[in-house]
Each structure stands twice: as C-alpha cells, then as structure tokens.
Design brief:
- Helix content is 0%, strand content 46%.
- It has no helices and 9 strands.
- The two termini are 24 Å apart.
Length: 111
C-alpha cells in the first residue's frame, strides 16, 4: 500500500503489480496490508479482483456508547483502519477488531 496505489504480489511467482486505489472502487476499503485477494489477469492487466467474503479490520474511530443507552438494536458509525464506515453496536470501542462482510459491508461481530 502506497498512498493512492495498492501493491499485490503473486504468492507463487512473487511478481508484483501496483494498481491505483480508485480502480478498485469500494473493494479498496476492505483490503489492508497482507490481505489475500483473488485476481484474474489478462495480458498482465487485472480483469477482476475479489476480496474474501469476510475481513477483519480494526476500529480507528468511533464515539463512545452513551451510558444507559440500551435501546435494543441501537448502533453508531465506526470508521475502520481502511476508511470504511460501518454501523456497529454501541458497546464497540476504538481499537476493537471486527469481522466485516465484504459483500454487504455490514458488521458481523468482534474477533
């Protein structure tokens, strides 16, 4: 990962390819360093890039849950280490590692 670019390495040949972050669209919000993705290349250029169905990401920023706020199903936004913002239960704190569904972008649970 280098700012506006993501670098991927073929685990068999160790060949590397760098792609502009914006070419991956929303997928770039699920990919962190050392994450394994599936990539189909044609003539050395990526045709498809797929993340695993779930990823584990750390909460970078979220407001503390309010004491006494126990409304069932209440949630708050949390910004994850990749910049992805997801709705999480009120008890989630900064630094928590969460499991996120890459197909829906939803919180699945704590790790």
């Amino acid at each position: 990962m280098d700012g506006d670019f993501l670098t991927f390495m073929n685990l068999e040949t160790y060949e590397q390819i760098s792609l502009p972050r914006d070419t991956l669209g929303d997928l770039s919000k699920y990919v962190k360093e050392s994450e394994t993705v599936s990539m189909l290349l044609r003539d050395g250029k990526p045709v498809t890039v797929e993340a695993p169905n779930t990823v584990e990401l750390k909460v970078a920023q979220t407001d503390p849950g309010l004491r006494g706020d126990t409304a069932q199903g209440a949630s708050k936004p949390a910004t994850l280490e990749t910049g992805l913002v997801v709705q999480v239960p009120l008890f989630i704190e900064e630094g928590a590692v969460l499991r996120i569904d890459t197909r829906t972008g939803k919180y699945l649970g704590r790790v």
